[in-house]
Amino acid sequence: MFYDSHAHMDLIDAAELSNKLKDSKDAGVLKIISCSTSFASNTKNILLAQNYAQIKAALGLYPLDILELTQLEIDKAFYFFNAEIIKPEIIAIGEVGLDFKYSAKEAEQEKQKIVFERFIKFSNEHKKPLIIHSRFAQRQVIEELEKHKAEKALLHSFTDSLKLMNRAKNNNYFVSVGLNILYNEEVQKNISNFPIENLLFETDSPIRTQGKKAYSSSILKIAQKTAELKNISIKDVEKQQGKNFIKLFGKTN
Question: In this structure, which topology does domain 2-249 adopt according to CATH?
Answer without folding.
Answer: TIM Barrel (3.20.20)
